Structures are given as structure tokens and as C-alpha cells.
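re: ur question from the group chat, yeah i did fold both. here u go
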Amino acid sequence: MIRLGIIGTSSIAHEFATAAKASGQFEIKAVYSRTQFNAQSFGEGYGADLFVTELDKFTALEEVDAIYIASPNSLHFEQAMSAIANGKHLIVEKPIFSNTKEWEAAFSAAKANNVFLFEAARHLHEPNFALVKNEIAKLGEIDGASFTYAKYSSRYDQVLAGEEPNIFSLNFSGGALSDLGVYLLYAAIAWFGVPEEVDYAAKKIQTGVDGAGTMLLKYPYFTASLHTSKIYNSFADSEIYSAKKTLILDGVNLIQSVELVDGETNERYQLAEKASGHFMDDEVQAFARVLNDPENPDTIEDYERWTQISRDVNRTMEALRKKAGIVYPADLDEA
């Protein structure tokens, strides 16, 4: 049983704790928050019995083997480095770090301290995500792709009222690209590889971050167009084009429908597998498999593949931000 500590008490942290506890692979042991009340209120329902408000004391707990981080984006790096220095394995919510400088420093430290560092990009581990990759290989030459993830955030109401919530703040490395666009980038890079060139037409809001935007990922023989937003909703499907055949997805994460359309015969084939269980089950089991069997060549191969994709996504996100002139305070700090 992997003894887990949790940093953050947000809704996504609740979801991960629920899946981790239900998996039978993790014991929720400790929670870190700025206040004792928040830590205890979050953790008691999952069986945690250690509640800490000082970061260094939390990451040094001998009763914890691994730590899950679900704090605001700009806090990930400091928290991760403290945990790594104390020999803890890490699962960090996407986006894992604010920039490539932080990414390289953290993964270098993790390797030096012989700990695993995972980015919690849950869709990478879903069966239908792998199914799409296999179907793309069958299509042959790709002519284009269009992915969309746009969902109105209730916190945008706070922005309109003159406030600056974390997810829409440069200080906390927020914005549509970092929060939702990262899902699209993971899909494009896992399925097509690293693009040769990128561009980002961002719609900036009054806090300075991108509230929405369109990314262009240019490959040798096609371009992928990625649309993301936290200030409006879109109900568009995501599509991959190959001459007379098109793959139509109901999204690039939590994929429930993968339809192959033959434009010549007008026939449609539903390819998706039916999902079951908690939506974080697959990533929880994937991380546990590596932590429980760290010498297995297959698990190490998976870990190295996930790490490379994380690196490529992080580098591409930074390049896109630069194209849009979006600079985080974290970019100006020395990692």
C-alpha cells in the first residue's frame, strides 16, 4: 500500500483522493493546507490522520511515500522540490510546471534523488485515448486535425466583477492554455508528435492571461488547429482528417465516442470502448503500477514515455505563450 500525502483541497484533489482510495493501491495518510481546519476537513473523510500547515514539515513526514500536488500552478515547483529533497515520489496535476526551466530542474532533481515524478494528465492513460492513437496509425497520411475544449468557468464571473481568481492570474500561471489547452496539447503531441512550428492567437482578458485562444501546430504535411476557452462554451466535436475518412471524437479527454466516418460510402462505425468506474481510475492504476514495480522494464519504459510527452508538452506550451506575449512571474525567477 502506497502511503499518500495530498497538497491542496480543491475539487480535483477530492476526485483524485476518491479514485486513489477506491483503487486499493493507496492509503490517504496526510493532507497539507494553509489552515489546519481545511486540511482536516478535507482529509478525515478519506481516513487521513496527519494534517500539516508547514510545507517542509509535510514533505518530511516519514509516514508518507508519495505526494499528490493539486495547488495553484505557480506553487507546484516549490512544493515539488521540497518533496523531492525529502525523497518523496510525486504526482503533480497538469500543467506540471510553469515553464521549461522549472520542468528541467525538477526532473533532474527527481532523477538524482531516485524518485518518480508524474504529471497527472489523466487522459493519457485512458483506453480510448490509446484506441485513437491506433486508429490514426490505420488511417495512413493525416491531412489535418481540429480539437476543441472550451468551457465557461464560473470564476470568470469574478473577473468580470473586478477580481483576479488564481486560474485567471498571471501570478499563479493561469489562463485557458494552461488549464484546458494542455489537454489538447497532450492529445496532439501523443498522437502526432512534436510540431515543427507553433502559433497562438490568444484572446487576453483584463487580468493579462488568455481567456481563450486558437493554437496552430504545424507538422510537415498538415496543420492541427486547437481551440480552447474558459470564457465561453463550445459543443464542437474534435476531428482528425485523412482524405475520405474522418475520425470524430466527442473530446480528447474522457473520450466516450470515437466514430470513423467513411466519406465514400457514408458509413459510420462506433469504435469507442465503454468506460466504467471513476474517471481517474486509469491514471491512478498506472502510477501505482510504476511505484509498486519500479524495476520492471515495462513500467520503466512507460514512465520514460510519459516523461518525454510531459517535457514536449511543457516546451510547446511555453513556445505558444511566447507567441502570444504571455509572461508569467515564474518565467522571471531563477529555478
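okk and heres the other one u asked abt
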Amino acid sequence: MNGKVMKITIRVILAVMILSFLIFTLSTFTQSDKSKMNIMFIAKSSQSNFWKTAFQGARAAGNEYNVNVVIQAPETEEDYGKQNEMLQWAIDNSVDAVVFSACDFDKSVKAAERVIDAGIPVISIDSPINSSKELMMIGTDNILAGVQAGEKLAELTDYKGKVGIINFEEGSANGMQRERGCLDAILKYPNMEVVDIRYTLSNIENPKLNTIDMLKENPEINAIATFNEWTTLGVGEALKEMDIDKDKIAVIGFDNNLKSIEQLERGIFDGLIVQNPFAMGYIGIQQAIEYKKNKQHEDFIDTGTKVITAENMYNIENQKLLFPFSNVK
């Protein structure tokens, strides 16, 4: 057989196999699994360590409570359109509940409210929607997390900081809340100043380029705050590429990506605000089950944050946050 024809044939076979698997998965969910509760978990992205950890929490709850958990997410944290399609899928397949983290505070409101109006409760985790109809919110107290970042930067700069902020997408509620908390903390000190704020995509390259541009335009900056896993990685790459003395700029980042932890250990970062995505995923599924059973719910469950530094990162409890699957005793 001609090599080119063989390659095409193999691709066709693989495509048919993948399509067959997807059809089988959806039919299994919509037909044979009706004896179990079906909960859909729609995350912001499938790519980051943060969301992979949240998926582990959701699966753990699904296994413990013997419910089906269907996990879906767009590739990027900006793709609210794909999330809206997933919300419609939840209606079309009559799921029992949706656990949802919105890419955009406003642009998924109508889609989410259609789900709720269809009799399916929507529980927000990590990032809420702009609707009073959402059942509850589970996640970080984002304003407090921002305050933690701002206070640490003030301390690190002897309360005389020239601060640059690298935030993620402007429409995301949790990013804006973190920024607000950080500004509240910084601006109460008369000698602290916010020099520049940049909004970036949730990947590594875009925040890296924005950080380089910001520092070139504002060489007086001696402190940087950044508010999620991707932007933290991007800032780290920018500092590495610019070969900036680690003692010249204080940096507070977010989350527990292994590369960020390594940079914390090496002194490139001065602190990480570490969340608990495993708890968000687990409690989201747990609360969906509890609500379906007894119609009771909290308004907000705080899953907590911790300021991790090079000085306290080897504390056993902090190790469990930094490495949630390393079986730390």
C-alpha cells in the first residue's frame, strides 16, 4: 500500500474511533447512567495545574458519593462562548446539577440562567457570574487574597514600593476582586504607588511580553503583583529573559505550579498566594449532591489561601498545599 494512502487510512480510522468513543461516552451518560446522579463540572480551562487539581477533587467526590461527574472545559480561560455551548449541553442532556467557573462575569449570565430556569441548580466555584440566581459560591475570598499580596509587597519594599500589576482577563470576576484587594492594601500606605496595571491572556507568552514591556517603560518599578498561575509563570519567564537581579524587584504570584515553586525556592519570587483547587472541586460536587437531596445550601464557602514564602515553604502543612498529590505525611 502507498505510504501516503496508509497514513490517510490510519488517520480516518483514528478519527472514527475517537468519534465512536465520544458517542459512546455521551450515550452512556444520557441513557445507562440515569440510575445515578449526573453532575456536570464546567471549568475555565483544561490546561493549567490549578484546574487539573480541581478535577481531581471533583472526581474524588464523585467516587465517594457514587455519582457521575462529567468534566468539560475550553482550552483557554477566555473562551466564554465555548462555555455557553457547554451550558446548553447541560440543558439538552438534563443533568442534575452544574458546577461552573465562569470565564467572564457577564457574558455567560444568560446561558447560565437558562440552565437554572430549566430546573438545574448552578453552583459557582473559583469565579462567579453576575446573577443572583446562582445557588452559591465556593472558592477563594479573592479580595482577601489580593490584600495578602498587597500587604506582602508593602512589607518587602519597606512600604516604599513602585508597583506593577500583571492581571489576567479583565472580565474575570476573581481577577478583578484580587486586584481591588491588592490596591486597597497598597494604597493605604502613603509611600506606596501603583505605576502600571496590565491585563493579559491566561497563557505564559502574553503576560511575559506585557511584563517586559511594563518594566522597560517603567524602570522605577520595584515590586510586581500577579494573580493567577499563567500570569505568574509569564512574569517568571520575563524576569529570566531580562536577567533582572532577583533582589531588585519583589514579586508575589499565585498558585502552586511546580515551576513557580522552584522559582520561589531560588528567590525569583518572594511569595506565592496558594489556593486550594482540590477543595473547590470536591466541595462543589459535594454541595451539588447535598442540595439535590435536602434543598439546603450555604451562600459562600471559603476554601482558603496561604501566603507561602521561601521561609515557610517546608512547613509540613504548606508542603501539603504546594504538593497536594505527593502523599506528604
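fwiw on the second one: Residues 1-28 have pLDDT under 50 and may be disordered. The CA atoms of residues 105 and 130 lie 5 Å apart. idk if thats what u expected
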